[in-house]
């Protein structure tokens, strides 16, 4: 059986990279040569994937960008392409699903059987019965929202409960109550390095998916020092727009490769 | 401009019903005559819609059941059918989305432009910037998860913060900070009638989407008395499985109509 956390651990070692390339395809930002092509989303993302794979430990397609344009078939083709051409680099489907019982089972079927993702992001607001159905898919990863990098993240996540903010309760639940499968991870935004450090202290070696560097302005040095594990891994540091839209011209793939390499190297300076 | 809350208010008055029929299509539960048909999901749901429309104030398709089976096209066709054949009955897309910025904009495009839903369910864990992008679609409804009817709902929603449980903070934020558009609603489970009463006291006349009667066992009398507004409306009381699977035989549509009528009447006994 393939295990997400084991595959990820092996990818960190083999690639020497903590960079997760986020795939948020917006056709209005594509180069002119792709305009009007029915499979432009697939083609753009495939080129980005092939160009950045040497510098990445994983890819994270955001499902909304595909669903808004009836492009689920292109998302299926894209994930199949990653598995075929870049085996060992796990694909995290960023879907932030959150539901229970038979509905959660349907979402898990969507993510793992239809799209064949290796892991998925989920929302903890409905509690453990919204996490559990995903775990029935043995070896698949479940990455729970904990502390998000947006300003409004604090509306709920920073509320004090039992002497600590809610996101710390979520980290504690994920690490100490919900993780019998050892396939959980957490989303913690790079805009709050001190909070990454706090979460790391709560969750041990659990993988952290960290958005918010690049376009969102998180500090790479502070992020890496706060989130690394004893062996200098433990993080999927995500960058989307700063890499995939590094150039809006015909050199988009090469520009993405350069941006990915620079980001990987900047991260590695501080490991 | 069509307004979700105005359409809903008119539907309550015209239909005399507070029943929302939930559409969670599982092909394994369909009657034999539909087996193997490529459009079985659409056909089943269309038959349920046409049979139950006289007794309902709205419909709530759950997107996961369609997405798990590559049946987004059937969901589009189903919602178009409701709009064409049953105008004035709003369609709530149960998707429980939760994301921010440009990603939330893509999800809103999916729900409102692609699927043409009148309202959508969303998750509040990421705060106001996960609600705001939906509100840019004027007149569309946004129904925020508040207190869910599952056992694990208490894991986060019942945590005390500032002297009250988290779900009350969400109700307060939704009613008093996030609702400039007057198009917000809240999800509050029927399994907690006292909490429905508390939420109603916080939110005034805001529409409440209430799952959990029927298969989940919520008490109809206690629910209605706790959640009704001064004019005896204010609630979308959802029933899914108890109606759509009232019979697994060829009489499924008639059985659904009977179950919907009985549920509407039972609700109306206590208004």
From TrEMBL, chains A, B:
> What are its GO biological-process terms?
'de novo' pyrimidine nucleobase biosynthetic process; 'de novo' UMP biosynthetic process
Residue ranges of domain Orotidine 5'-phosphate decarboxylase in the record:
18-256
- Return any one Pfam family short name: OMPdecase
User: What pathway or pathways are given for this protein in its record?
Assistant: Pyrimidine metabolism; UMP biosynthesis via de novo pathway; UMP from orotate: step 2/2
- Could you tell me one molecular function GO term of this UniProt entry? orotidine-5'-phosphate decarboxylase activity
Superkingdom is Bacteria
Q: Does the keyword Lyase apply?
A: yes
Keywords (A to Z) from UniProt: Decarboxylase, Lyase, Pyrimidine biosynthesis
Q: CDD domains given for it?
A: OMP_decarboxylase_like
Q: Which residues cross the membrane?
A: none
Q: Which residues form the active site?
A: 96
Catalytic activity, reaction form: orotidine 5'-phosphate + H(+) = UMP + CO2
Enzyme Commission designation:
4.1.1.23
Establish whether keyword Lyase is in the entry: yes
Return the NCBIfam families for the record.
Answer: pyrF_sub2
The Swiss-Prot or TrEMBL record describes its family as follows: Belongs to the OMP decarboxylase family. Type 2 subfamily.
Q: Would you tell me the protein name for this molecule?
A: Orotidine 5'-phosphate decarboxylase
Organism of origin is: Paraburkholderia acidiphila
High-level lineage: Bacteria, Pseudomonadati, Pseudomonadota, Betaproteobacteria, Burkholderiales
């Amino acid at each position: 059986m393939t295990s997400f956390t084991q595959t990820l651990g092996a990818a960190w070692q083999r690639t020497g990279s903590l960079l997760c390339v986020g795939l948020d395809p917006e056709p209005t930002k594509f180069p002119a040569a792709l305009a009007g092509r029915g499979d432009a989303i697939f083609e753009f993302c495939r080129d980005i994937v092939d160009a950045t794979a040497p510098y990445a430990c994983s890819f994270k397609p955001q499902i909304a960008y595909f669903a808004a344009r009836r492009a689920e078939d292109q998302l299926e083709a894209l994930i199949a392409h990653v598995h075929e051409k870049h085996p060992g680099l796990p694909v995290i489907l960023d879907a932030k699903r959150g539901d229970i019982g038979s509905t959660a089972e349907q979402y898990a079927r969507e993510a793992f059987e239809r799209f064949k993702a290796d892991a998925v992001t989920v929302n903890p607001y409905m509690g453990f019965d919204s996490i559990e159905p995903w775990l029935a898919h043995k070896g698949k990863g479940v990455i729970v929202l904990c502390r998000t990098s947006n300003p409004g993240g604090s509306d709920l996540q920073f509320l004090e409960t039992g002497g600590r903010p809610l996101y710390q309760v979520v980290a504690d639940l994920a690490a100490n109550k919900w993780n019998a499968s050892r396939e959980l991870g957490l989303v913690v935004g790079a805009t709050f390095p001190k909070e990454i450090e706090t979460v790391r202290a709560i969750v041990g070696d659990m993988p952290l998916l960290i958005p918010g560097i690049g376009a969102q302005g998180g500090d790479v040095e502070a992020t890496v020092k706060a989130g690394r594990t004893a062996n200098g891994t433990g993080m999927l540091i995500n960058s989307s727009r700063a890499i995939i839209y590094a150039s809006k011209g015909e050199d988009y793939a090469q520009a993405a490769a350069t941006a990915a390499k620079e980001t990987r190297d900047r991260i590695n300076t501080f490991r």
